[in-house]
């Protein structure tokens, strides 16, 4: 049987180049490989653990949905759904909470980091976040989970929970494996020592930035006072980040790009990079605009995915309840 694969992204704002190279591009490739039965969902319940404005949430969900489809995730090939619309996720999360080791959750680095960033809002959801994530995954018997490095610890917890559940209640769940995306981290254009993030918009290239915005941000990206287009993360962090982006979007080797820009100045290199970025995302922007112009159709697409997910997850939760002795 062909293995199952699942991943999700939180709807919490515009997607940027880091999200694209670190997740979405990979999702599309995994889908196209036809080696997996793919599920891609919108982790809207997870996004409630961070500060948010309810007036924005629906739009953020629709925006992410449109981005999924525009980037190439195909609802005919993959099951695309919205987490909150599948009650089994929260049902299973509660059950997993009752076997999740408190100590292990307290050691989660993402929980500790986020507690520092949002010290006024250290809610319990932030703490049990990885338990809900485990439920997301194991409900669908997922064998593989493409994630960034920062999620490996959460995947380990999911595996622990599967082992605990299976040994106590019988073999119900599959132990998932992470598929870690190996792309270089995309750094901020304004501070190449920091990860690209939407909280620093000038250093952040959004996937739907206009050609003018792309050009402005790339031309004002921080480099160094030398003249040579050369990859050297130690002494030329800014330029190396730009070279990395250039290479990933053009499918060229860094060395090839270096020689192409030998004896040319940074401005020439940057102009060319801005062009590559704009060209790369032009079809995405066009498709996304079109999708968002017809929201009813977009919602229908999600509803079809939700229905499939609900069937699978709904059957699974019944089996789980039976194993726990909850079903009368
Ligand atoms: N925690 C993931 C992230 O921030 C999002 C996520 C939620 C997820 N549930 C998941 C990813 C299940 C993979 C599988 O990147």
Write the layout of secondary structure elements.
Layout: E1 4-9, H1 17-32, E2 37-42, H2 44-47, H3 54-71, E3 79-82, H4 88-97, H5 102-106, H6 109-117, H7 124-138, E4 144-147, H8 152-169, E5 177-180, H9 211-219, H10 237-250, H11 254-260, H12 266-293, H13 295-324
Parallel strand pairs: 1-2, 2-3, 4-5
Helix pairs in contact: 3-12, 4-7, 4-13, 7-8, 9-12, 10-12
Bound molecules: tryptophan (TRP).
How does this model look, in words?
By secondary structure, the protein is mostly helical. It is built from 13 helices and 5 strands. The strands form 2 sheets. It has a 3-stranded parallel β-sheet. A two-stranded parallel sheet has the order 4-5. Strand 1 (4-9), helix 1 (17-32) and strand 2 form a beta-alpha-beta unit. Helix 10 packs across helix 12 (266-293). The two termini are 33 Å apart. The model has no long low-confidence stretch (mean pLDDT 96). Bound molecules: tryptophan. Residues 6-8, 10, 43, 46, 133, 136-137, 145, 147, 151 line the site of tryptophan.
**First CA to last CA: what distance?**
33 Å
Q: Which structural class best describes the helix and strand composition?
A: mainly alpha
Average pLDDT confidence is 96
* Radius of gyration, in angstroms, nearest whole number: 21 Å
Query: Strands of the biggest beta sheet: in what spatial order?
Result: 1-2-3
Number of strands: 5
Q: What small ligands are held by the chains?
A: tryptophan
The percentage helix is 55-70%
Characterize the main sheet: 3 strands, parallel
């Amino acid at each position: 049987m062909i293995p199952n694969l699942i991943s999700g992204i939180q709807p919490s704002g515009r997607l940027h180049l880091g999200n694209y190279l670190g997740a979405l591009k990979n999702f599309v490739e995994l889908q196209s490989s036809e080696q997996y039965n793919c599920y891609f969902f919108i982790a809207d319940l997870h996004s409630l653990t961070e500060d948010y404005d309810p007036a924005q949430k629906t739009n953020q969900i629709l925006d992410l949905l449109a981005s999924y489809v525009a980037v190439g995730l195909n609802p005919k090939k993959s099951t695309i759904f919205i987490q909150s619309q599948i009650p089994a996720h929260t049902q299973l999360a509660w059950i997993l909470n009752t076997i999740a080791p408190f100590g292990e959750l307290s050691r989660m680095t993402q929980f500790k980091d986020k507690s520092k960033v949002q010290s006024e809002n250290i809610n319990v959801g932030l703490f049990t976040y990885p338990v809900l994530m485990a439920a997301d995954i194991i409900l669908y018997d997922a064998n593989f989970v493409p994630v960034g490095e920062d999620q490996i610890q959460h995947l380990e917890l999911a595996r622990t929970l599967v082992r605990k559940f299976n040994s106590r209640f019988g073999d119900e769940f599959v132990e998932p494996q992470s598929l870690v995306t190996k792309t270089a981290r995309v750094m901020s254009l304004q501070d190449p020592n920091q990860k690209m993030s939407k909280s620093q918009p000038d250093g952040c290239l959004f996937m739907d930035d206009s050609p003018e915005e792309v050009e402005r941000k790339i031309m004002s990206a921080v480099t160094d006072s030398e003249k040579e287009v050369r990859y050297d993360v130690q002494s030329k962090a800014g330029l190396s980040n730009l070279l990395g982006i250039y290479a990933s979007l053009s499918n060229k080797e860094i060395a090839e790009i270096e020689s192409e820009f030998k004896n040319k100045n940074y401005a020439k290199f940057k102009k060319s990079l801005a062009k590559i970025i704009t060209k790369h995302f032009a079809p995405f922007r066009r498709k996304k605009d079109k999708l968002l112009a017809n929201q009813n159709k977009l919602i229908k697409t999600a509803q079809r995915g939700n229905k499939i997910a609900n069937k699978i997850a709904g059957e699974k939760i019944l089996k789980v309840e039976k194993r726990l002795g909850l079903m009368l």
